[in-house]
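Summary of Year 1 activities. Much of the first year was spent building the evaluation harness for sequence design. The harness presents a backbone, in tokenized form, and records the residue chosen at every position. We chose the following record to illustrate the format because it has been used consistently in internal testing since the harness was completed.
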């Protein structure tokens, strides 16, 4: 496995931690700077930091109820009346100037690993990602997620994510 480009991880606690962070997606920056601290009771924002404490990427996760009524049979598996529970990657950003270096892929892998740990403690059916925009939908599809019709939300069964970690993929 390749070494990750960050020195440590920490949870978002103060605005000072993210004051200098900017990424290439305006909506993601706005969420991080304007809403992330207020979301802390429900959303865990993990900061991946360099040796100086500068944020390289971040990821915000939570548990969510997903409407999968119009999803595929795999997406609907385990749902009740079209709703299902999932581990949600709600927001993710990589510092401007560092995109394209595999950092986002490494963060996605870390988030998936965290979801597998949670799944093994208390199983739930889905891994869910909210893509920031249309351009990111394909990125997440290449990672194995499938788009819910007409949305920027993508899902895949947790059993597939867990299996990929069991086999080392």
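For this record, the design step produced the sequence shown next.
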């Amino acid at each position: 496995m390749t070494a990750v480009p960050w020195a440590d991880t920490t949870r978002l606690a103060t605005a000072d931690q993210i004051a200098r962070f900017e990424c290439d997606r305006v909506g993601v920056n706005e969420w991080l700077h304007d809403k992330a601290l207020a979301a802390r009771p429900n959303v865990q924002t993990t900061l991946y930091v360099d040796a100086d404490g500068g944020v390289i990427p971040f990821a915000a996760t939570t548990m969510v109820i997903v409407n999968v009524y119009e999803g595929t049979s795999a997406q609907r598996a385990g749902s009740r009346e079209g709703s299902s529970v999932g581990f949600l990657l709600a927001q993710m950003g990589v510092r401007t100037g560092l995109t394209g270096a595999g950092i986002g892929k490494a963060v996605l892998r870390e988030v998936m690993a965290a979801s597998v740990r949670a799944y093994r403690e208390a199983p739930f059916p889905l891994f869910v990602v909210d893509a920031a925009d249309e351009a990111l939908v394909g990125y997440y599809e290449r990672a194995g997620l499938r788009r819910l019709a007409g949305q920027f939300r993508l899902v895949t069964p947790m059993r597939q994510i867990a299996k990929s970690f069991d086999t080392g993929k």
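The helical segments are 26-34, 36-39, 73-76, 103-121, 134-142, 158-166. Quantitative recovery figures across the full test set are reported in Table 2.
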